[in-house]
Amino acid sequence: MGTDCPQVATACGSETFEMNDPVDVLIIGAGASGAAIAWSLAETRMHILCLEQGGWMNPAAYPSTGRDWEARFYGDYSPSPNIRARPEDYPINDDNSPIKVVNFNGVGGSTVMYTAHFPRLHPSDFRVKTLDGVADDWPIDYETLAPFFTENDRMMGVSGLSGDPAFPPREPPPMPPLPLGKSGVLLAKAMNKLGWHWWPSDTTVATLDYEGRARCINLGHCTPGCAQGAKASTDITYWPAALRAGVELRTHCRVREITTNEHGMASGVVYYDKDGVEQFQPAEVVVIACNGIGTPRLLLNSASARFPNGLANSSGLVGKNLMFHPYAQVYGYVEEETDSNRAPPTCLWSKEFYETDLSRGFVRGYAIQFGRGVGPIMEAVMSEAKGVLPWGADHHRVFRRLNGHRLALAAICEDLPEEHNRVTLDPVLKDSHGIPAPRVDYAISENSAKMMEHGIARAGEILAAAGATDICVNSPILYGGWHLLGTARMGTDPELSVVNEWGRSHDVKNLFIVDGSVFVTSGGVNPTSTIQAIALYIADQMKRRLANLFD
Amino acid sequence: MSIVKTRATAESGLTPAQRDDLRVIAAMMIPASAEYGVPGADDPAIQADILATLGRDTMRVREALDHIARLAGSPLAALDPIRREVVAKAFRASGGVAAATLVRVVLQCYYRDDRVLRSLGLEPRPPFPKGHALEQGDWSLLEPVKARPSVWRRAP
Predict the structure, then answer these.
(1) How confident is the model over A11-38, as pLDDT tens digits?
(2) Residue A83 burial by Cβ neighbours in a 10 Å radius (0-12, 13-18, 19+)
């Protein structure tokens, strides 16, 4: 760090900061996409710095190491940042949304707290306008991303099985799939009875010892961090490799805004360091990897005299077209014992209803994600809330019939982009540094609602085929806003998109976005695999164009 | 459960009257059962666990207990069983997030009690480091799916 104190033009006017040495590439966010691009760019030997608002995770402190493992899901390991409220979390006003945002902030980002279900978008997902006349085509296609999917599967360590007839041929994943277990067998038999497609899920849970990670021992409570290290989060996959290659990662550093110079180029960022001190970090290239909520928040908070509507927002589309995947969850109870919480929740998927069939009453489709069951506390809490588990003398008998007998599935519905679904800045709410917080306004579309109803009906048929009773529905899953997509979409037309076909801002030639914000449409599957493949693809494009990156 | 601490009652932030109502409503939710050999949720160790670990739920639980007090008009224990049942039903129906929080707090302490877990055939331990066994299952079930023609949609 240097000693002079430069004047920097910021959203607040002109401010003076202690000077940090400039870096070649500054990445904001150390999650799924930030880690991937950091690792990929490291081979350029450029000075790469990543600023992350959270810290390193300590697997020894993950919930599954303690007797209160289930209870912590409702507290300091809640998927909702508003409930979790750790110092590194920022609040989100999602009052005007039937789906609440869930995420995680720290090295690894939301990969620390995902289920590790790892499907890829389908080829048809990139061509929805051409195929179905809705939304827009992507400026890239599946074939373009295919090598980066493969590379990402290797880096994250994917377990799965090639040969799925509902997906194009591809190379075998690095590890075999998770066992079917008791739940998988029950579900597979039901699907075979109906003659519907199913396949063992691709998952980033290691089924073998892999690249320094120990294989899965079925802790079962995978979502809020894997104490075994079998679940791939980028703090234990990409980041060790990136750091060994020379990337610098600065934790507990929250970026307030991206600054620009007199040429309209990004000049660096203003951030609060671990002691809460404002710093200015100059950079030649800025890469945003903050997810579909954090990225538009940062761009809107970076408004200036030159960019009064927010940075990179000449299209007016920053924050618009927010897509979740509305989840329609259905579960029931069988006489047989299921895997309950004694295995990873990821199990099988079905693409039976993935592609458009207009006779169903909606366009596009959904994947089905099957689950194995839940632990005793979650079973009790959910069943009581649904009115299935009574109070009083009959409580014990009913609980014994429910606990360890649940089969669950969810339709992950493709959400189409709509401009009124958006992220803006809340006029009142701020984070612990006083930075305006994001506000989410979102409504489920008629098409998505029809899709969810269809999914609920089919799920009921599947559970009936499995012999399940006491069917319960959560639609949408309230705290189901895992997938944050579309708020800085990619495209070739600067009036209709925020970044170009290789992730560079149309407006600011040294500013890149690599997270789920760039999705043009959402597909009907968990997006992390595709987000990371896109980040690797953008890194590749940058490396190919280093000599004329800003042209 | 080993994390039970008797000092909790003094540190829980609940008044003695609130602790009494909490004990009574917990017993109404989950009474002791000789048939299954389990304590009720009013068991002293389970109540101590609840009070010791209220933490961030304290405000909501207090709110819920205030709601019960308003509905009951007197200590729950002083009501006859029929009236108590009416209050409990009204509490669950009208108590909103606060009632749900109180119910969850009781359930999460009850279903981690060693005696309760053993009665369910579960080991009272954290998942890590022992983990669990997961059987492979019958992979021949996949054969009919493998035999299906390719169904993915080609894109131009």
Answers:
(1) 777 778 877 999 999 999 999 999 999 9
(2) middle
